[in-house]
Amino acid sequence: MATTPEEVRPVTTQKPTATRPTDTGPLPVRGPGPVPVTLTVNGAEHRVDIEPRVSLLSALRDSLLLTGAKRGCDQGTCGACTVHVEGRRVLACLTLAIACEGRPITTVEGLADGDELHPMQREFIACDAFQCGYCTPGQIMSAVALLDEGHASDDDEIREWMSGNLCRCATYPHITAAIRAVRDTTSDPS
Ligand code: FES
Ligand code: FES
């Protein structure tokens, strides 16, 4: 349908505000071109030159070559890109890398302790909790966070709090079993 002149969104000629006030004064302008960003991933600092619009997922995979976090939907619906930022699970495809400066990031590559797999990784193997494996890094990162959050009291709660992580191979019962196994072996029986 044709638009009348009144329906056309007015073009602003005002330049975007380059700074925003804070208690300590205006923040410096960064971007829109590549800027140096320091990311702390799995305990190591990395400096990358990226545009401020770059997602954490792209920075991890394309700049740091940490390809554990997977790009599934790239729009926040599948959970394949789940990583931890400051110990909390986030969708890396919806998180700006530049917003993670100074905040510790953990990816699935950082879960194991040397050759010793994280208990959740071990139970995913023991419970046969994957088929193609594409969703598995995100599932494991969510599962680890879920236990830390205290959302694993029963299978219903596990399913509810894992519902943001989709598995096209439908390994859900095995994923639930793996989480249950870690919960039962790590929780204090007293
Ligand atoms: S790739 Fe991030 S939620 Fe699907
Ligand atoms: S194991 Fe294939 S998508 Fe989950």
TrEMBL record:
Q: Name the SUPFAM superfamilies for this protein.
A: 2Fe-2S ferredoxin-like (SSF54292), CO dehydrogenase ISP C-domain like (SSF47741)
Report the pathway entry.
Answer: Alkaloid degradation; nicotine degradation
- What Gene3D superfamilies is this protein classified in? 3.10.20.30, [2Fe-2S]-binding domain
Domain of life of the source: Bacteria
Q: Which GO terms describe its molecular function?
A: 2 iron, 2 sulfur cluster binding; metal ion binding; oxidoreductase activity, acting on the aldehyde or oxo group of donors
Concerning PROSITE patterns, the annotation shows: 2FE2S_FER_1, 2FE2S_FER_2
List the residue ranges of the region (Disordered): 1-34
* Bias type Polar residues, positions: 11-22
The segment(s) forming the 2Fe-2S ferredoxin-type domain are 35-111
List keywords of the entry alphabetically. 2Fe-2S, Iron, Iron-sulfur, Metal-binding, Oxidoreductase
Q: Which InterPro entries does the entry mention?
A: 2Fe-2S-bd (IPR002888), 2Fe-2S-bd_dom_sf (IPR036884), 2Fe-2S_ferredoxin-like_sf (IPR036010), 2Fe-2S_ferredoxin-type (IPR001041), 2Fe2S_fd_BS (IPR006058), Aldehyde_Oxdr_Iron-Sulfur (IPR052914), Beta-grasp_dom_sf (IPR012675)
The protein's name in its UniProt record = (2Fe-2S)-binding protein
Please spell out the taxonomic lineage of the organism that makes this protein: Bacteria, Bacillati, Actinomycetota, Actinomycetes, Kitasatosporales
